[in-house]
Each structure stands twice: as C-alpha cells, then as structure tokens.
Specification:
This protein is mainly alpha-helical and 365 residues long. 62% of the residues lie in helices and 0% in strands. It is built from eleven helices and no strands. It is rod-shaped, with a radius of gyration of 49 Å. About 5% of the residues have low confidence.
Length: 365
C-alpha cells in the first residue's frame, strides 16, 4: 500500500462522523408554541365534531323510535276507537230491538227508523225552527243537557223534538195515578172483577188486567189521601211515620205486578188467587179475602206440629204430611211475588177501614 492510498483512507475515516451528524440537522429537534396550540386546537375540533356526529346519530335514532312509538300508539287508539264504535252500535241495536219488542208487546206505536231523519239534514219544509235562547230554555225545562259535544243548532233542535215526541207518547200511554201504567183505566162502576178467569190472550183477560190496575190505583189513591189528611202531630209520631212507610213500600212492591199485567205474563197460579182476593174485597168480604191470601201464601200442605217421629217404625198418619206437596206455597221461592202479595194484604187492611163491611163478622182480626 502506498502513501497516497493510506492517506485517503485516513481522511475518509475522519469525514464519516461529520456526514452522520448532518442527518439530524435536517429534522427539527424542537416545536413552536404556536404549532403546539394549533395541533391542540385541531384535535379539540376533531373531538367536538366526533361528539356532534354521535349526538346527531343518537337524536336520529331517538326520533325514529319516537315516530315508531307514535305510529303504534295511533294504531292502538284507532283500533280501540273502532272496537268501541262497534260495541256502541251493537248495544244500540240491542236496545232498539228490545224497545221495539216492548212497544209491540204493549201495543204502542213503533219507533221511526234511525235513518229516516239524519242529524245533519236540513229542516223539512214546514218544520218550525226555534231560536237558540228559546231552545235552551225548553231543554232546561225538561231537564236535558243544553248542548252535547260538537252539537249544532239543527242537531239540538232534532234532539229536542225527539224528546218531546217521546214524552208526549209516554203521557198518552200512561195513566195518571200512584203507579203509572199503559193499561187504560176503567170507571169505578166497572171495576168489579168476574169470579171466573177467562182464557189467556183474549180481550176479556186484558179487561181483567185493566180492572185490577184501576182498583189498586184507586185504593192507593184513597190510602194516600187518608194519610195526608191526618193531623201534623199524628204524622210526626212513630205510628204515623210507620203507616206512611208501609204505604210507600206497598206502592213500590206493587210495581212488578203492574208490569206483569201490562205484558200479560202474570202466572195463572197467581192471577187466579189474586182475582179471588180482589173479588172478595170488592164485595167487602174481607175474611174470605184473607183466607184466599193465606191459601196462596201458605198453601194447603199439612204443617206438622210437635214431634212427628216417636219411634223407629213408620206411622200411617205420617204419609199425609207429604201427600199434598203439589199444593204447597210458591210464594217463598220468589222474593218479588212475596212482596207484592204482602202489599195486597196491606191494601186489604186499609180497604176494610175505608169501606167497612155491613157484616161485622167479615172484619179481619
């Protein structure tokens, strides 16, 4: 190796660290505060943008869920409203059917069809209109609501005319008296009921029901008048209040009897003894009327008194206790029948004081 090559190798060794140290000089070993703040601000903006996108995504999901829940709620409400409307229509149809059957049974005029007069239709020619103040006062006079929800003046007028028509029909078909009934009253001279019971579903049977209704209404009217003419001290006494309560209770208990007579559904086993009791009371034979009441209330069955079985052997007389079970009383099995028969007995007690018999032996104890 010559000197020149040796010197070049030594020089190259000396210059290698300088080249290595020049490399990091190209990259900065420090940052400015402005650059750091810019980087921090950009990171903050990026975080806020990510949070805003997350919030918007959550709001979109929540809005979607709310819309779906509102749609389900509307669907449920619509289904509930539809079911309620169908139930209301069925209930109105059943009530209309029952009302038509009742009117047909009582011989009343039939109801007009519902679609004959629509609520929103204009007034017919010749149909009188009523001003709003007068119509309001007339509705209040019959104790009806002045205005229903969403009701117009024409609808209110239709409703008033329907109500007055129903009241007029009721007034013409119901008799005045303590107990209102659709049975036509008969004069007092024709109230004497026959001793024999006619065939059912005949004009004679209907006339008997009219006679019974007129007689009981007349008797209750006289009873009420007799109680009202008492002195104030008697009215306020314990006995006076008890007598008034007995009359009012009898009036209430006799209403089912009137309803059965109106519909002509009174049983033969009850109508026949009632006819016998009323006939005897009209002839002022109150003891015989009381006997008829006892027969229908207690019956003809034998009532054992005392000890009925003293040994282990069957006695011949014991068979008679049950051989007349077919004639035993039915009054205790029906509460309504028991009450109006007891009211008839109270009417008998008043009738013998209002119309005393000529024979004192016919006075009930």
């Amino acid at each position: 190796m010559d000197f020149a090559s040796l010197m070049s190798s030594e020089i190259s060794k000396k210059t290698e660290p300088t080249a290595a140290a020049s490399v990091p000089e190209s990259t900065k070993s420090y940052l400015k505060r402005a650059d750091l703040e810019a980087q921090r601000h950009q990171a903050y903006l990026d975080d806020q943008a990510a949070l805003q996108r997350a919030r918007e995504a959550k709001l979109t999901q929540k809005r979607k869920r709310d819309d779906e829940e509102a749609a389900r709620s509307r669907e449920r409400d619509e289904k509930r409203r539809r079911l309620a409307e169908e139930s209301r229509l069925r209930r109105e149809a059943d009530e209309d059917k029952q009302e038509r059957a009742r009117r047909k049974r009582l011989g009343l005029p039939d109801l007009p069809p519902k679609d004959a007069i629509k609520e929103g239709s204009p007034l017919a020619e010749g149909e009188d209109d009523i001003s709003a103040p007068d119509l309001i006062s007339k509705l209040r006079s019959i104790k009806e609501p002045v205005t229903l929800f969403g009701e117009t003046h024409k609808q209110r007028l239709r409703r008033y005319k329907r109500l007055t028509a129903a009241l007029s029909v009721q007034a013409t078909t119901s008799t005045s008296g303590p107990i209102s009934t659709s049975l036509d009253p008969v004069p007092e001279s024709d109230m004497l009921v026959p001793s024999t019971l006619p065939s059912p579903k005949t004009p004679e049977r209907t006339f008997i029901f009219r006679q019974l209704a007129s007689y009981f209404n007349m008797l209750l009217t006289e009873w009420s008048h007799a109680l009202s003419t008492r002195s104030e001290s008697v009215k306020q006494s314990f006995q006076g209040k008890a007598a008034l309560g007995a009359m009012q209770q009898s009036l209430t208990n006799l209403r089912p009897l009137f309803q059965k007579m109106e519909s002509q559904t009174l049983e033969e086993s009850i109508l026949e003894p009632v006819l016998e009791i009323v006939r005897a009371a009209q002839e002022r034979r109150y003891v015989d009327a009381n006997d008829g009441y006892l027969r229908v209330s207690i019956g003809k069955a034998a009532w054992p008194i005392g000890v009925t079985m003293v040994g282990i052997h069957e006695r011949s007389a014991r068979e008679k206790l049950h051989e007349s079970d077919k004639g035993q009383a039915h009054i205790m099995s029906d509460e309504v029948t028991r009450k109006f028969l007891q009211s008839i007995k109270r009417c008998l007690s008043f009738a013998q004081t209002r119309w005393p018999p000529e024979d004192q032996g016919q006075l009930m104890g």
